[in-house]
Specification:
There is one protein chain. This protein is globular. A hairpin with a 5-residue loop joins strand 1 and strand 2. The protein contains one helix and four strands; from the N terminus they run E-E-H-E-E. It is α+β, with helices and mostly antiparallel strands and about 90 residues long. It has a domain at about 1-60. The strands form two sheets. A two-stranded antiparallel ribbon has the order 1-2. A two-stranded antiparallel sheet has the order 3-4. The protein has one helix at about 20-35, and strands at about 1-5, 15-20, 40-45, 55-60.
């Protein structure tokens, strides 16, 4: 996995996570686990190499009445492209 944390110099920050196929499968499994058990959570952690940066991301099920402050968007598609159905 490779993470890139960007300071957009306007008060906001960006986070990019690049995962291998095996890491995607592992993430999906962990998300399914916390979906079914709201008392569980997991972390995505840094290797803590270098002088600083993003150290930890905690993932858990939103169970409290908090205001939503982020959303999930769709896939990045170019003009005229369509989402391919899963080949199963």
């Amino acid at each position: 996995m490779h993470a890139d944390f960007s300071d957009w110099q306007n008060g906001w920050f960006g986070l990019s996570l690049e995962l291998t196929v095996a890491e995607i499968d592992h993430l999906i499994g962990l998300l399914q686990f916390i979906r079914d058990d709201p008392e569980q959570h997991f972390h995505i952690t840094s290797d803590y190499q270098g002088s600083g940066g993003l150290g930890d991301i905690e993932i858990c099920q939103m169970t409290r009445s908090l205001p939503h402050n982020m959303s999930i968007s769709g896939l990045a598609l170019g003009p005229g492209e369509t989402i391919r159905p899963n080949s199963q």
